[in-house]
Amino acid sequence: MPSSAAKSPSPEFPDRAQTRLRPHGTAAAPDTPGTLERWSKVPEVTVYFWIIKILCTTVGETAADYLNVNLNFGLRGTSVVTGILLAVVLAAQFRARRYVPALYWTAVALVSVFGTLVTDNLTDGLGVPLQLSTIVFAVLLAAVFGAWYLSERTLSIHSIITRRREVFYWLAILFTFALGTAAGDLMSEGLGLGYSRTGLIVGGLILVGALAWRLGLNPVLSFWIIYILTRPLGASLGDYLSQPGSHGGLGVGVTLTSIIFIVGILVIVGYLSVSRKDVVRVPVRTPAEHQAPSRHGVVQTAVVVGLVVAASVTGYNLRHSALQAEAASSAGLTAAGLTAAEVSAQVPALGDMTVFRTITRDTLGLIDAGDQAGATGRVADLEYEWDNAQARLKPRSTEQWGRVDGAIDTVLRDLRAAGPDPAAEKTALGELLALLA
Q1: Relative to the CA of 185, which of 126, 152, 274, 341 has its CA 20 to 30 Å away?
Q2: Do 163 and 96 share a structural domain?
Q3: Angle at 35 between CA 34 and CA 41, to 5 degrees
């Protein structure tokens, strides 16, 4: 997207004074001695920006899973570790006098992890429905934008030159990740669309947003819409690359996918650190030079947000009704003329658990045979099948589904631990079999 900020054609990047004075009444020119300017604390929005953003999303989610499952930190422990690291990096980011690519993108990656964990803690730890967390994070993000706009009269990321604007900026970034996680999980798991279809839908929406920007949609509004959508897009891309072919992926694997993405991030950030292509210098205006907020931009925002809410509610209701009809059909109750609510009340059991019992028994057999690698591979089928069945099973009995889901999480954590304990694995698998029976 185009930047309204003046950029310096000079390769020089002074570390001392962030501002230069210009005589009153003269035009602002970035390289004219006497111009009043400041260095922006965030990068220019270029193609490199979006590539790194998507890569950070995938790496952040993979890192969270590695700490949570492989190192057995658990959801709470992972949140604490990530929160501490994020606080340290953000403190360094706020203390920096200018945009530093490595520091900035490290903060974004950690915000990606922490924002994801906030949603996961609400969903898995406290049992908050994804529908509710999506609404809550959307309201919180709107509140941040509202406070930011009322305070600064702009939401532009091209003028992050004060501490207050930087606080608003990072709060907005955090809530976009949390909202993107909740909305993406709701689409892929809660509504049973899967990561592939969710990725295609989100990718299409991003293209629509980019096209609308080219046709005149407010650039600030376009930026934040696309920023939110890149979170589920990055997750879908990582899932597509890492999952085996039997699960609809390319079979690259989680580890290799993470390595590829990390190398990609390091290469691009290194290039930007040397070339400084995304450095922004912002002319500082006097009060008389500030323009009044654009009413056209406010109207566009209201219209677009209204359309997004209406489309989201309509799409959710249509998909939810289809899932309830499917549950009623599988239960053989459609002929009785029952409503969706009546069907839900009369079908408390999760239904046929044969496929999950089969995979669990296979995994237990592989553990008994001493084939840890085979068991780890087989349990991935359990995770895949369970995630795909969530939209169909959860409406039948949220409480029972939650118990089985927790038992499966324990099985996954034990089998993917850095130092697997066969006794703990057998116990977890046995408890899961008892629930599935």
Answers
A1: 341
A2: yes
A3: 130
